[in-house]
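Suppose you are handed only two things: the residues of a chain and a line of SMILES describing glutathione. What would the bound structure be? This form records exactly that question and the answer produced for it, so the two can be stored side by side and reused later without any lookup.

QUESTION INPUTS
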Amino acid sequence: MQLYYSPGACSLASHITLREAGLPVELKKTDTKTKKLEDGSDYFAVNSKGSVPALRLDDGQVLTEGPAILQYLADLKPESKLAPKAGTLERYRLLEWLNFITSEVHKSFSPLFNPTADAKVKEYTQQNLEKKFDWLDKQLAGKQYLTGDQFTIADAYLFVVANWSNFVGIELGRWPALKAFLDRVAARPKVQEALAAEGLLKKAA
Ligand SMILES: N[C@@H](CCC(=O)N[C@@H](CS)C(=O)NCC(=O)O)C(=O)O
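ANSWER OUTPUT
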């Protein structure tokens, strides 16, 4: 399989999942601004939506949309317990989380990264995100991960998008349970591997 990614983008959740599941992958670095791959070829030819992640399967088909890719990967390795078995209530609980993260957290960041967005829009966006973080902090209190003691694809996804706060000036120390969760996920060896592979770890002085 090949994962089309951009360093630190939401595609990092798929990258983490591949490593947590022990699945072999070829990483294809993508410039989401120019829509070019490293060899200069056109990324729209891979994913006509132009966004990452995209996963090229071994038969050549391309799967897009982060939550779909995450579940596909988790289901390739059920023993990794990255997603509960399809059809169980636990699986729907996981979908509940994936949907919340994608629609209420992930996409809420977009105006904060947009240099042309109006200051009022950014202010509203940040306040809205802070309300989501207030709620998330309560959900995570006393828990290792979103669904309990087991790390899942939802944790990988929340880890990636909540960490964007560091790039838009939202101080995560206000939400101790969320902050502790992010530190816990960051400490996982496979997460460290993925961060290093995307060039996201600070080099030791
Ligand atoms: N609905 C898509 C959205 C993916 C998305 O927002 N990707 C961002 C990076 S985090 C991106 O590629 N942005 C550039 C673009 O869409 O042109 C998914 O969930 O996979």
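WHAT STANDS OUT: Helices lie at 11-21, 66-76, 89-106, 110-113, 119-140, 153-163, 176-186, 189-197. The chain has a mean pLDDT of 97.
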